[in-house]
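Chain A, query sequence.
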Amino acid sequence: MSEKDVVKETKPRMETVIEDFRRKLATVRTGRAAVSLLDNVMVDYYGTMTPLNQMASVHSPEPQMLTVQPWDQTQLVAVEKAIRSSDLGLNPSNDGKLVRIPIPPLTEERRKQLAKQVHEIAEDHRTATRNIRRDANERLKKMLKDKQISEDNERDGLEEVQKLTNGYIGKIDELTKSKEHEITSV
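Chain A, predicted structure.
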């Protein structure tokens, strides 16, 4: 095993952090109806907590409206209750066939809260990226100690891992800025 192998294994792990970050950002409300907004809503489905998107069709017929049609019509009230109790600040209504969720425009205060939430999510993912860097650096140092690689190879490996880390943290910052702009623009 060489320092190049350590760098190769580090890259997909950091890529996974970016994918997770994108998924988490998609669930943050922006004032427009997005189907991904309800991804984290869990419904009590016959005693089992089930993700909403696994038990109903979610659509966005208008820019300010979401509709949820459960496959099991008896679950309309449970779906409505789950959406209401989520921390999204939405007020669904049910017409007997589907649940309509109007997406109210965001207040200035709510925009600031959401921007803060985006920054917290970003910081968690930056930390995850740095932890991956730390793991890779420890492996490189152990390989040097065990005389599997030379000091030059270790230094090259550490530099490569740092370049990867800087690149992925840059991506996180970029995604954060674009999401923050999306939230704050009226």
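The radius of gyration is 22 Å. The domain at 3-26+107-184 is CATH 1.10.132.20 (Topoisomerase I; Chain A, domain 4).
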